[in-house]
Amino acid sequence: VDWNFRRLRLGAKYETDLWGAVIMFRGGNMLNRVGLSKYTTNITYTNPSTGITSTTPLVYDVKLKDNRGYIHEAAGYVKIPFASTKIIFGQMNLPFNREYIGSSAYLVSLERSMITAALPQFDIGVMVQASPLKEINKKWENYLQMSFAVSNGRGGGGDFGTGRRQDLTASNRYVTNSISPMYTGRIFWNVFGGYEKENTPGPWVEGLQIFQNKLKISLGTGFTSTKNLIVDSSPPIELTPGTTKAFNYLRSQSSYDDNGGTSTVTSGGLSVEIPNYAVQNAVTTPSRPKLGLFARTYDATITWKGIYFNGAFTRMIGGASNQLNGWHATLGYNIQIFDKYWIMPLVKYDYLNGDFNRNGSRRDLSDTMKIYWAGLNFFGDKHDFKVQLYYQVLGNHLDINPNTGNPMPIDDRRITLQIQTNFSAGTVAPEDISYRSN
């Protein structure tokens, strides 16, 4: 049994007719990060003159200055009346994946899907957002929204951030210096409009539609592209338990462009140029001068009289992609039992596949991961108080048979109880102030 804070967030929002700002702190990182844990390393030394070996424990104490990733979100935006345009800047939410755009406070399922961890949820950059149908008819403002962002591609401080410097030329001894930005775009089509609060039409708020009886359909598609993928994305630790094989979703570029060299081998008077690199690794080659990435996603959410469906398909291509693809589907039914209380049983299937060992095939047993979920949500005053009880089964072959060395299935079944409360104070509700795509 493991007890811990899954999420602990503290933030503030402010908005006027001309501009707005949001800042959010990751309390979970402050409490759970390794940088706040004291640990000991043993140093062994053998005296050359006496031959006596001694061991000295070296204790590393807590260093708050080394524990980073506190800032979850820090963005400002300017509002332009034409087409409800917003220009956003700072460490912002990227408009790619529907589950990552939605706030964790309003998640219907216990966790986001596996594919979301492949790319950062936040990054530092600039984004433009608009609702073009507003200029045709004011009533159509929440039916269509378009977003486009240019960002550093290194992730936010709480995602894949490397420290205090987050600009494009930031580097350290472990990371290749890259100046290729990441481009992200998304289009939302809310077929019957957005979230209606007290019969007043508003923007789509993922996770709140389940409390309305009207038919609501939201369709979306997004893309992400970069010439040089600079971040390593590994799955959450709970997906690789025990002795299972570790892997990365994507393969970041660890060398400069066109880095692969050749060696001259002479035999029988004939000289041949032989590559001195392996195509499977993260080194660039003359035929693969960059490890780039292009990802696209298609998703939908449908709610009607308590019935809830959410699904998405994501595909990635490029030298860094590992040919990653994944899809997930969630089906549930929200039942109102009292004025402000609901019970929602649901099931979810999550699928992920990729050429993780980069051998040119995605058919190896260890190249596919599956998760089966069955759960029950209890809502008190919508998402303000939420209790979630879930049964989860991991279906993958990430373990290794000690006798044959071949992949073998793991036996991992879990029961998770999560309790979540949301507190807010202000002149409006938290969902009324937002720059995120919807």
What would you note in describing this structure?
It is a single chain. With 438 residues, this protein is mainly beta. The chain folds into two domains: 9-31 and 65-253 and 290-432, Porin (Beta Barrel); 254-289, no CATH class. It is 2% helix and 44% strand. It contains two helices and 24 strands. It has helices at residues 27-32, 98-101; strands at residues 9-15, 19-26, 39-46, 53-60, 71-80, 85-93, 122-130, 144-151, 182-190, 196-197, 200-201, 216-226, 262-267, 270-275, 293-304, 307-317, 325-333, 335-338, 341-353, 368-380, 385-396, 399-400, 407-408, 412-421. The strands form five sheets. The chain has a 16-stranded antiparallel β-sheet that branches. The protein has a two-stranded antiparallel ribbon with strand order 3-4. Strands 10-11 form a two-stranded antiparallel ribbon. The two termini are 37 Å apart. The model has no long low-confidence stretch (mean pLDDT 86).
Q: What topology does this entry show?
A:
Elements: E1 9-15, E2 19-26, H1 27-32, E3 39-46, E4 53-60, E5 71-80, E6 85-93, H2 98-101, E7 122-130, E8 144-151, E9 182-190, E10 196-197, E11 200-201, E12 216-226, E13 262-267, E14 270-275, E15 293-304, E16 307-317, E17 325-333, E18 335-338, E19 341-353, E20 368-380, E21 385-396, E22 399-400, E23 407-408, E24 412-421
Antiparallel strand pairs: 1-2, 2-5, 3-4, 5-6, 6-7, 7-8, 8-9, 9-12, 10-11, 12-15, 13-14, 15-16, 16-17, 17-19, 18-19, 19-20, 20-21, 21-24, 22-23
